[in-house]
Amino acid sequence: MHTKLKLALLLAGSAWAVSGAEAQSNYRQTAFAESRSYGDSLARDGYRHLQTYTGFLRDGQTATARLTLSAGTDYAIAGGCDDDCRDLDFALRDLNGQRVEYDRDIDSRPLVFHSPGWGDGGTYSLDVSMARCTSDPCFYVFQVYGR
Question: What is the pTM of this model?
Fold first, then answer.
């Protein structure tokens, strides 16, 4: 099995206030930076970026995304979230709803790998859980890589 590759800004005071557009840009930048932090290592291992998903979740909420995964392809799914997020988790479920991979580490950068066997390609579900968000809602992103 694969080994895990574990490799917003808030200013107080009126003189240092951040505009709404700048704050939005900051939290998105933080989330994308966390998600992309795996990108170089994955690229060295032959993975290429396939797709990006984004969303917002409140503390304790879970969203489910549908992913089409092809048999014979190795996949890596890397996530990240904003500065208010303390713990983002993934659970990948197969065509029958069985959990096949998960990352429940207490961190804001989940990473899972999966390689569907022959006959196991199709629509998978990725449960994205906001296990800890200190200021609701938290922005998250995950990127799908394949080789």
Answer: 0.81
